[in-house]
């Protein structure tokens, strides 16, 4: 494909919504609340915000500029900007990370479909907390049902991907993102008006810095990374479809604000409700799937219709958020196969979908019948999560910041960020400083910490 016939996003809003759709996902609604719960609430959020602003946004600008400058898939981008060098491995690692994340992410995304059906058929009603726990455990370890759902979820993603960039990704993001916001807002209002919700609100707003240690700080940085879809060239691939007058810095800001807002609003849905019915905020990754149906049930015990609506809406919201993220991961790998190996777009997408279904099946089974098959003590699901989120993404981000901060021609970086000098970007120098010094050092710290070499 030549530079000129490469597809583009049709509008500015489409650019922002598609990128925000990638960023907003299970990371915001499922992972953010449980990390916040595990790390003491407001203080964690405070540090998280600092990480998004200081590290996430500049690296997002870096990914954007690499993608738009090269107008290629992630691996091709490094090849174009640094021909014949080893930098292409950064892109390839990103593609691989995308494929691996998509495989296990789809398992959790599939669970959201099961929960939509459970909520819609009213099977939450009348269950005790213990029953919610055992039914989740029975479901997630069942050899068939989760596989069915993950396959369906990947086929849904596939369907949107083969429709192409503008007709597929952009059109669906334009519909889904606003719907997502509306549902979130309704749920926040419901949650904060529950009796006893104040304690949850306080948990989210009153920082207790005595609980902050190095680990909290580094966890917050890791979460920022995952949530903003950084480090694997996802936003880089999307930026290859940006037009040449897209303002990269402004887009990064908008995406960062939307992503952060959704995460915090998710906190405002979950914690007030959890405190209201006496559920511990540090319930961990199972928080949404085990605790929330129970929360909805008890919170609206007098009004079963509300319990019903509240729970259906929540899981629909989660599925929508996950879908716009799986689309973005799928696109990274599809664009790579399509452009580097000359497969048709459709065939490339089929390979990705097929491969992820197979790997996803192993991930799902690793939580049930294949529990005992482990590598380094981890089942397939946990292994992929560990290798991608804790190794590949930080490593990718580290290299991306070094690439733009040190390797790339300064003039090219300048002309991409300022659109050939037509934009005034007051934070330009700050972005470069962060990419050169702060980001590489900070990410190295996360990386080292997550590998357990240094425990701060
Ligand atoms: N940011 C997405 C989420 O919050 C996950 C994701 C990670 C998507 C990496 C693409 C790339 O759920």
From TrEMBL:
PROSITE patterns for the chain: NA_NEUROTRAN_SYMP_1, NA_NEUROTRAN_SYMP_3
Compartments (UniProt record): Membrane
UniProt cross-references to SUPFAM superfamilies, sorted A to Z: SNF-like
Any one annotated GO CC term: membrane
Keywords: Membrane, Symport, Transmembrane, Transmembrane helix, Transport
Transmembrane parts of this sequence: 12-30, 42-66, 147-165, 177-197, 217-241, 253-275, 305-327, 348-369, 389-409, 430-449
Cross-referenced NCBIfam families: Na_transp
UniProt-recorded name of the protein: Transporter
Species: Jilunia laotingensis
């Amino acid at each position: 494909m030549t530079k000129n016939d490469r597809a583009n996003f049709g509008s500015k809003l489409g650019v922002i919504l598609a990128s925000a759709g990638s960023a907003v996902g299970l990371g915001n609604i499922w992972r953010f609340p449980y990390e916040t719960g595990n790390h003491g609430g407001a203080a964690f959020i405070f540090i998280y915000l600092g990480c998004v602003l200081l590290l996430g946004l500049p690296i997002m600008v870096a990914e954007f500029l690499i993608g738009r400058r090269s107008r290629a898939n992630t691996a091709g981008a490094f090849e174009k900007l640094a021909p014949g060098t080893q930098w292409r491995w950064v892109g390839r690692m990103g593609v691989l990370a995308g494929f691996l994340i998509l495989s296990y992410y789809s398992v959790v995304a599939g669970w959201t479909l099961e929960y939509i059906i459970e909520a819609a058929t009213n099977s939450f009603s009348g269950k005790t907390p213990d029953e919610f726990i055992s039914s989740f455990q029975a479901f997630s370890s069942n050899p068939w049902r989760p596989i069915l759902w993950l396959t369906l979820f990947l086929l849904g993603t596939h369907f949107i991907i083969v429709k192409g960039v503008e007709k597929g990704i952009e059109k669906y993001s334009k519909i889904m993102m606003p719907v997502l916001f509306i549902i979130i807002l309704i749920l926040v209002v419901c949650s904060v008006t529950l009796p006893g919700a104040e304690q949850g609100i306080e948990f989210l707003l009153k920082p207790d810095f005595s609980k902050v240690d190095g680990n909290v700080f580094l966890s917050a940085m890791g979460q920022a990374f995952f949530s903003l879809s950084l480090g694997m060239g996802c936003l880089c691939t999307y930026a290859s479809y940006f037009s040449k007058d897209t303002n990269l810095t402004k887009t990064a800001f908008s995406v960062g604000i939307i992503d952060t807002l959704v995460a915090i609003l998710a906190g405002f849905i979950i914690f007030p409700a959890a405190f209201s019915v006496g559920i511990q905020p540090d319930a961990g990754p199972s928080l949404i799937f085990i605790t929330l149906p129970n929360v909805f049930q008890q919170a609206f015990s007098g009004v079963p219709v509300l319990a019903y609506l509240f729970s259906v809406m929540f899981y629909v919201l989660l599925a929508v958020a996950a879908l716009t993220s799986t689309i973005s991961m799928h696109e990274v790998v599809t664009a790579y196969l399509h452009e580097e190996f000359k497969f048709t777009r459709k065939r490339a997408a089929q390979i990705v979908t097929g491969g992820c279904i197979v790997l996803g099946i192993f991930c799902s089974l690793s939580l049930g019948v294949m529990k005992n098959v482990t590598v380094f003590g981890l089942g397939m699901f946990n292994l992929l999560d560990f290798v991608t989120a804790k190794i590949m993404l930080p490593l990718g981000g580290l290299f991306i910041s070094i690439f733009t901060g040190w390797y790339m021609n300064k003039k090219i970086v300048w002309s991409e960020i300022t659109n050939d000098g037509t934009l005034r970007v007051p934070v330009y120098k700050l972005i470069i400083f962060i990419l050169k010094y702060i980001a590489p050092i900070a990410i190295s710290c996360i990386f080292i910490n997550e590998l357990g070499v240094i425990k701060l």
